[in-house]
Design a protein that fits this description.
This protein has helices spanning 14-21, 56-62, 64-74, and strands at residues 31-36, 44-48, 80-83, 91-94, 97-98. By secondary structure, the protein is an alpha+beta fold.
Length: 99
Amino acid sequence: MYKEFTARGENIRPEDLLNHEFSDILSENKVADAIFADSSFNNAIGVAGTTIKTPVVMELFKNKAVSKWLRSIIGESASVLIVYRSNKSPEVYIKDEKI
C-alpha cells in the first residue's frame, strides 16, 4: 500500500528535528534555517545562531567545496548542525559530535 506525503500535509519540520537532536548544544540558540537531508525525514542540515531567519543552508550549497563536504557528511545518514556564535568561528556538529 502506498502512502502519500506532501510538504503542506506534514507537521514535521527540519528545524524541530534539529532542535530536538541538538538540544544540549542549543541552550541559548534555536535553529534559524534547516532542510531535510533526504526524503526519509530522519536527518537534516541546519544553521543556528543567526539573528534572523535567512536561507543560509541553500547559500552554503551554492559553494562547490562546501556543498561537496556537506554531501559527504549527509551521505553517512547524519544530521548536521552549524552554529554561529559571537566572536568565534562557526562550529559544526554531526549528531552529538563536534568536528
